[in-house]
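Handout, tutorial session.
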Amino acid sequence: MIIGLIASPFVEVPPKRYGGTELFIANLAVELTNLGHQVVVYANGESNLPVEVRSLYPQSLWPLTGEFSETLKDINHTAWAIRDAIEDCDVIHVNNVHGLPPSRFCRIPFVYTVHHDHDQALSEFYSYYPDVHFVTISNFQQRLEEMPSLRTIHHGIDLSLYQFREKKQQYLSFLGRIAPFKGPHLAIRAARKCGIPLKIAGEVQPLFQPYFDAEVKPHLDGKFIEYVGEADLEAKNELLGNSLALLFPIEWDEPFGLVMIEAMACGTPVLALPGGAVSEVVCDGVSGYVCTSLDEMANYAANIQTLVRPNAVREYAELHFSAERMAAEYVYLYNQICETGSLQMLEGTAGSEGPTAA
């Protein structure tokens, strides 16, 4: 089978730093190839993958500024990629809304992975594309949508890229966009409550610079509360692998939360506030804890070394969140839609996750 995976033109695949969707596409592309399929990734020219990459735009463009020209660039890239993919591919797998309108003019199957939180306007837009096979990345996300062809496939990562560390250092970590809904200000409060130092990593986008300046920067002393900047893969391994726990004090309905499974891959438990898919990713007492308050989070952090074994955390990630498992579920979907050739023959499959590779 030949699969066309379409990324945005803005961030290279895989991403050097920020880029959850681009990391997903990179992991899926590699594992689909390992399963014997041919993959073409449509991304910008800075992408570096062991599969064929086709590009319209040579360079990344991040962070975005919100200019209309950026939207035009995304539309142009996506339309070009789909026109190219229909010549060679058996399935076209898109990952943003601009990939849907061209599906009306193509006879080959389209798969769309929904990477964002629920948005009523987008859900209404999706309803005009009943022949597209939608994939949500959590059951929580799926329950908010009503597309006729809809199933959940949890994310997976290449676990070999993450270094397991059994011995931890005496600090907590926060990794993610420095934005209010991600909760770095709450991570600071939890760290102070339990008396354990905190290292913060993540991108400060221009939109959230005032938040960083007001809610995070005043607490930074380079010792107890430290900001280490953006983190590439090497820095993630260092930060997460040596950390007692990853703090994930979100204040929104997280569609999935890739950083949680990255921490688990390093043998580092996750202490999270509930929201969205958190309870689908974190298993209490095995890979961390879903906490009801910052006080509870601080209490778990203070005692985490006696509550959770790093080996068990890594094993949980291997069992549930490998890229191999994720790719096998997508192949199951691709095969179904290619064999049936019609949405009607897939009725009753919504919510099915297919076989697993675990």
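The second record follows below. Compare its token runs with those of the first.
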Amino acid sequence: MTTVQVELPNPVKETGPLIGSPESARRLIVVAVGWILLALAAPAAIGFAQGAAAGFVRGLTKGASELQIPPTLSHLLTTVGVFGAAIVLLYAASIRGRIVGGGNRRLGLGVAPIARLPTIIGLSTLLVVYVALIDFAVYQYRPDLFFQSPSVPLWLTLFDSLILIILAPLAEELFFRGWLWTGLREHWGALPTGLMTAVMWLVPHLDRGIGYVVLLLLPALILTVARQVGKSVRATIPIHAIYNLTANIPLIVVFLKLFQN
């Protein structure tokens, strides 16, 4: 009699996706910090170059004058620095997503259909209300920000808007709540993973002051909850974009003024 052997499939964990990366949580964090420092090097280098040029001119003139950089050029250099940082994060997310996903970049980045869409919409609405209240408070104390005359050309304002509303949310979410979240979830639960990714997202914003970071605490919480509940980085990217759009109403007002002119 011939014996037929049936090979049963190996059980697969149901707590998270099957990841091909053997990296430890500590290594994932160290690698993420390295990429973040590299991303921050772009705007830091531009700021250093401007300061060095001003100091060089002051030295030549024995302090009699200072280097006067045109406002448009200064604004452009700052924007280019932010653009460079976002590109570095996108590049890092592409590389690390493939590594964490064991060759499957979409798996490593956490790109999947959004779960519990009504909850995600509710979180987006909550964030919009929060930012609208902040905008109203700013308007009460600094209405000039909403009615100031444009100091940069239309194309540069459009460039700023595209970076803030499209590129920055995409780069930051694919990096922090994309591959990093996916990799850490293989070692940690949802709470420590959410806390670590939120803190690492907040730290680079310290250059704008501790008060700004405090205002970002609620958005960080909402993005973390949306990532866990939505089971996909697709849930956090639009929420982040909506936040940046609502939080930069003064910039949008300036853009509309330039467009009308």
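Points raised in discussion: The mean pLDDT is 82.
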